[in-house]
């Protein structure tokens, strides 16, 4: 039986109440590639909509916090922390956003980390689309997770 369908084939949210509360951590990343002009505007803080990378960090945190409002079967969680890092990739005119979400709870935070990355990268796109509409958001990936019954996962 699928975990998100009941015996009458209706959608349901999984009951996590029998699960143990453990420390759960997930890290995800993604990349946004763009033109040299857009890359320079972000680096030089000259984009008309304001400080792009700082805004993307706030958006990533908000995205992680609001995951249950966006993904139907995700549980609302009391997130302990959201940590972000942005790495410049000047050789390909790109930025890599990394988001780590931590909780002490009964369900994992993989979706929160992935959503944080997605919303953060979409924010970068939104803020510089006037310069480059051909930007590509790519490689949104779960890098690692720990905690819970399934234990550790590390992308090879």
From TrEMBL:
GO terms for MF: cyclic pyranopterin monophosphate synthase activity
Catalytic activity: (8S)-3',8-cyclo-7,8-dihydroguanosine 5'-triphosphate = cyclic pyranopterin phosphate + diphosphate
Pfam family, one: MoaC
Record flagged with keyword Plastid: no
Listed InterPro entries: MoaC, MoaC_bact/euk, MoaC_sf, MoCo_biosynth_MoaA/MoaC, Mopterin_CF_biosynth-C_dom
Keywords, comma-separated and alphabetical: Lyase, Molybdenum cofactor biosynthesis
Residues that coordinate or bind substrate: 73-75, 111-112
Pathway of action: Cofactor biosynthesis; molybdopterin biosynthesis
CDD domains: MoaC_PE
Domain Molybdopterin cofactor biosynthesis C (MoaC): 13-148
EC number per UniProt: 4.6.1.17
One record GO biological process: Mo-molybdopterin cofactor biosynthetic process
Catalytic center residues: 126
Family: Belongs to the MoaC family.
Role played: Catalyzes the conversion of (8S)-3',8-cyclo-7,8-dihydroguanosine 5'-triphosphate to cyclic pyranopterin monophosphate (cPMP).
Record note on quaternary structure: Homohexamer; trimer of dimers.
Name under which the protein is recorded: Cyclic pyranopterin monophosphate synthase
Source organism: Campylobacter geochelonis
The gene coding this protein: moaC
């Amino acid at each position: 039986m699928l975990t998100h369908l009941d015996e009458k084939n209706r959608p349901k949210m999984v009951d996590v109440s029998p699960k143990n509360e453990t420390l759960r951590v997930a890290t995800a990343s993604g990349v946004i590639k763009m033109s040299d002009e857009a890359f320079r505007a972000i680096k030089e803080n000259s984009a008309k909509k304001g400080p792009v990378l700082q805004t993307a960090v706030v958006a990533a945190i908000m995205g992680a916090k609001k995951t249950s409002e966006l993904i139907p079967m995700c549980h609302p969680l009391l997130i302990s922390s959201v940590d972000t890092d942005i790495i410049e990739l000047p050789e390909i005119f790109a930025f890599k956003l990394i988001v780590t979400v931590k909780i002490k709870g009964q369900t994992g935070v993989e979706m929160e980390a992935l959503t944080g990355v997605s919303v953060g990268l979409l924010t970068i796109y939104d803020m510089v689309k006037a310069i480059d509409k051909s930007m590509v958001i790519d490689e949104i990936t779960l890098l690692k997770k720990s905690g819970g019954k399934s234990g550790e996962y590390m992308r090879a």
